[in-house]
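ok new one. same drill as before - structure tokens go in, u give me an amino acid for every spot. 402 of them this time. try not to just spam alanines like last time pls lmao
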């Protein structure tokens, strides 16, 4: 993929100002100057149309020296709904974005909006949306063609599944894992105000890596709505509560009816087995673990977050007297017995195609967690992982329910 040469701030600003009478103004034969690095927000809006129902090709041309945090949206002007969203990135020289979308109805006008974060220097010279043949998206660098088309916008997250094999969708696992590992969806997700709000909800209350927050964001926002059944979310091993708050915030502000059940002793690790666990009893013990989490929950109005305090074997039987089912189980409890108990207790309550997400098995200090996955999921239940980066993700009942 062609990379543009680095420019200094002054050189970029000089190029921008030389290309138009003023930053942000339209000039002949130009879509517009989007940003000179001094601000953020929606820097550009253009309306095109009408368009008949069917596939359309979108292309954005220009120059970007620093394009991290820049993304575009195509919006149906009449319905005010997002048709397509993607990241601005250099595809080839002067081509900053290219994609194909499928209009579900005739559209009189489509608004093209481009957003940038502060520090992004971006110039658009031409912006084009036109009817085309299906999948008429041509990219010069064929080695990146598959990755770019699959992972650069949420439209791909809505494509039909190519099919299940051995109980998992290899396409879905790759779409999440490769895109995050190679930074195809990261900037797109990080530019989403919903992700920023959820991150603020979790701030200071988690040891989870940013990649895992991003993966959970993608799962909750784009994949859980595809499941036929509703189902709640359960977390085994909450610690300070950052991930539970993050998930509850996402559900709350996407108007989902799902609830988050967060289970923990809130008093550190229980008794462990030295022959299989590196962690010891009392690890992760901190004063007032529930206090800040409860304060944050109340401040954000997260009435969809239910905290369950105690050992799993004491709290789960009582909790499961209710007729609960789960679309996602987040198992983050580090040691063999806790991981094994979590999986055994929840596996028969997962909706068809539900996600079991393991945080720990690949961590250096969590050999016990990996042993539980190997013995129970791999060897006994003959399950295959759909995704191994940044989480280990399994699907339950995919072949039967899809």
């Amino acid at each position: 993929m062609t990379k543009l040469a680095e420019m200094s701030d002054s050189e970029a600003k000089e190029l921008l100002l030389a290309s138009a009478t003023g930053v942000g103004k339209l000039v002949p034969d130009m879509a517009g100057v989007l940003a000179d690095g001094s601000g953020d927000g929606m820097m550009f809006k253009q309306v095109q149309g009408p368009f008949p129902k069917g596939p359309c090709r979108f292309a954005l041309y220009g120059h970007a020296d620093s394009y991290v945090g820049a993304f575009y949206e195509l919006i149906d002007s009449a319905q005010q709904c997002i048709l397509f969203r993607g990241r601005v990135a250099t595809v080839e020289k002067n081509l900053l974005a290219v994609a194909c979308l499928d209009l579900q109805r005739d559209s009189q006008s489509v608004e093209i909006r481009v957003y940038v974060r502060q520090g992004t220097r971006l110039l658009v010279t031409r912006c084009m949306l036109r009817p085309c043949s299906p999948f008429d998206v041509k990219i010069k660098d064929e080695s990146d063609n598959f990755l770019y088309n699959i992972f650069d916008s949420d439209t791909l997250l809505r494509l039909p599944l190519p099919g299940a094999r051995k109980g998992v969708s290899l396409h879905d696992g790759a779409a999440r894992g490769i895109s995050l590992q190679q930074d195809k969806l990261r900037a797109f997700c990080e530019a989403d105000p919903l992700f920023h709000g959820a991150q603020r909800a979790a701030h200071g209350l988690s040891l989870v890596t940013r990649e895992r927050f991003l993966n959970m964001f993608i799962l909750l926002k784009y994949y859980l709505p595809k499941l036929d059944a509703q189902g709640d979310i359960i977390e085994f091993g909450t610690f300070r509560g950052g991930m539970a708050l993050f998930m509850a915030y996402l559900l709350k502000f996407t108007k989902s009816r799902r609830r988050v059940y967060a289970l923990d002793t809130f008093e550190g690790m229980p008794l462990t087995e030295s022959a299989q666990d590196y962690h010891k009893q009392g690890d992760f013990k901190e004063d007032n673990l529930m206090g800040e989490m409860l304060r944050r929950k109340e401040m954000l109005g997260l009435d969809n977050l239910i905290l369950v305090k105690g050992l799993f074997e004491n709290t789960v039987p009582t909790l499961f007297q209710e007729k609960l089912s789960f679309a996602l189980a987040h198992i983050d409890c580090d040691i063999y017995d806790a991981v094994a108990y979590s999986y055994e207790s929840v596996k028969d309550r997962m909706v068809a195609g539900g996600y079991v997400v393991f945080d720990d098995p690949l961590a250096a200090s969590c050999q016990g967690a990996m042993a539980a996955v190997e013995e129970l999921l791999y060897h006994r239940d003959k399950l295959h992982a759909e995704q191994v980066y940044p989480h280990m993700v399994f699907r339950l009942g995919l072949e039967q329910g899809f």
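Residues 1-5, 19-30, 135-161 have pLDDT under 50 and may be disordered. and btw Residues 9-142 form a domain with the Jelly Rolls fold (CATH 2.60.120).
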